[in-house]
Write a structure and sequence with these properties.
By secondary structure, this protein is of the alpha/beta class. It has one domain: TIM Barrel (Alpha-Beta Barrel). Helices cover about 40% and strands about 15% of the residues. The chain contains ten helices and ten strands. It is globular and about 55 Å long. It starts with a strand and ends in a 13-residue tail after the last helix.
Length: about 280
């Protein structure tokens, strides 16, 4: 598995997203558990979850899957609700997440999206649990450029390690200002939903992608993921509920594009030339 620099350390080029995992019947949950373990056994070093996912069911599934693994060999990320963003509720939410995950600490703890709580209070809460050793680092999710600049202007805001936003071939708004800003400020980026939503929103597959995938003898979804990974500077976290799907995603890491192929994709899915409103799933 190709490595990238993420959260100031080496990490696999893709992580494993777990939205809607752990919510099925026993057979489905067992299949997902084995998929997580297959990933850990074959080079995946980042697992992404949230207290929102299935009201903790995703965290519970991961907690079962990681037993027996060396905790230092992978990074574990979870996220908390905006209405849990006060210092007191951050601590309570984190304690519940750690219990479900059956671990003593998180590598990253993210504010899932902005809410009514002032960012200064959220920073204070995150610093407190970090000082106590419950998290190694913290970050944010679904933050636009104005949010990031506001965060950075506050005391302790420059300690934010990552921002996680929607990113795929049809949702490229982050390329205009967010990615350059984060690079300048040495903040890692996580791109979620490289295939769009389950319902086909946020990404329409155009004929050019189908044809290019055929020429490369890969699936369209492998092509979509490879495109997101093309610059080797972001972490993508596609969900994989089966080992077969995970194998396909892992193989996509090695797909290459020519300059002409990238120009052709740009012609159908143009890169942004101005700031646009951040898209959120």
């Amino acid at each position: 598995m190709r490595q990238i620099t993420f959260n100031q350390q080496n990490a696999s080029a893709i992580g494993l997203g777990t939205w809607r995992m752990g919510e099925g019947n026993n057979a489905k949950n067992e299949e997902e558990l084995k998929t997580i373990q297959y990933g850990l056994d074959h080079g995946i070093t980042v697992l992404d979850t949230a207290e929102m996912y299935g009201d903790g069911k995703s965290e519970t599934l991961i907690g079962k899957a990681i037993q027996g693994y060396n905790r230092d060999d992978f990074q574990l990320i979870s996220k908390f609700y905006p209405n849990h963003a006060t210092p007191e509720l951050i601590k309570s939410s984190l304690e519940n997440s750690l219990k479900r995950l059956k671990t003593d600490y998180l590598d990253l703890y993210l504010l899932h999206w902005r809410g009514a709580t002032p960012l200064a209070e959220t920073i204070a809460g995150l610093q407190a649990v970090q000082k106590a050793g419950y998290i190694k680092n913290w970050g944010v999710s679904n933050f636009d450029i104005a949010d990031l600049k506001e965060l950075d202007s506050l005391a302790g805001g420059n300690e934010c390690r990552v921002n996680e936003d929607l990113y795929n071939v049809a949702s490229r708004g982050i390329e205009y200002s967010i990615l350059p800003w984060q690079k300048e400020h040495k903040m890692s980026f996580i791109g979620y939903s490289p295939f769009g939503s389950d319902g086909g929103d946020f990404l329409t597959i155009k004929p050019i992608l189908i044809e290019m995938a055929k020429q490369k003898h890969v699936t369209v979804y492998q092509l979509l993921l490879a495109w997101v990974l093309r610059n080797h500077n972001i972490l993508s976290i596609p969900k994989s509920s089966t080992i077969e799907h995970l194998k396909d995603n892992m193989a996509a890491v090695d797909i290459k594009f020519t300059a002409d192929e990238l120009k052709l994709i740009d012609s159908e899915y143009p890169k942004p030339n101005k700031n646009t409103q951040l898209e959120v799933i």
